[in-house]
């Protein structure tokens, strides 16, 4: 069998077990920074913004555009002005571009709502113990680009959406439906009962990715960056697949593997468009 580019072996700990190390995504205060991310979050109107700070040396046009968006989307929000040094002190980053927002908890979508709003054939992404918020953000970016209907995250041992993930996602957190569920094995079982094919990604698998049929309702499962899928989640999958590899390294990182898997789904569905309609058009959360 060809080598795989999936990350990690099945881990023996349960997916509902508690992580022994604090996750990078845990912060008492969540700041979003950077022009595009702040303005897109404001325009989307989903993630509550409690404070908005603009650099006091922003040009007149940039300031006017930002204030006009505030007036349109959050008229009760009163933007503050501060030096760039002060903004950097608040968020701990110097690359804020003069835009800084303090946000509340990320507005996760109920799992039932995600499933009700799915197109046909549905496409889900399930993340099983992804701990690095930058990897999480990169996966969310790929999910948005490739038209995923919704992303499911566990509640234990899994990074959540925060400022780091938002930055890495290039704003995809404002366009995707993302749910947290207490039990990924239970979710997998529910999806299978609903005739969704659940395919896990693993370094060790009996099938290659291109041999799987993704033209019907599908849920892709990506595991932890180092240890891969948890044993209980892997056991619940319909099948486990690996990415064929021609090079000498034995794996891609988890975020790259997720992008390859999602591309393969859309590649197959574009070829099968006569059966399902215009499935290549990515869905968006309103």
UniProtKB/TrEMBL annotation:
Annotated GO biological process: methylation; RNA processing
Domain RNA 2-O ribose methyltransferase substrate binding span(s) in chain numbering: 31-109
Pfam families (alphabetical): SpoU_methylase, SpoU_sub_bind
Region (Disordered): 1-23
Any one cellular-component term (Gene Ontology): cytosol
UniProt-recorded Gene Ontology molecular function terms: RNA binding; RNA methyltransferase activity
Keywords per UniProt: Methyltransferase, Transferase
PANTHER family: 23S RRNA (GUANOSINE-2'-O-)-METHYLTRANSFERASE RLMB (PTHR46429)
UniProt protein name: RNA methyltransferase
Species in which this protein is naturally found: Vineibacter terrae
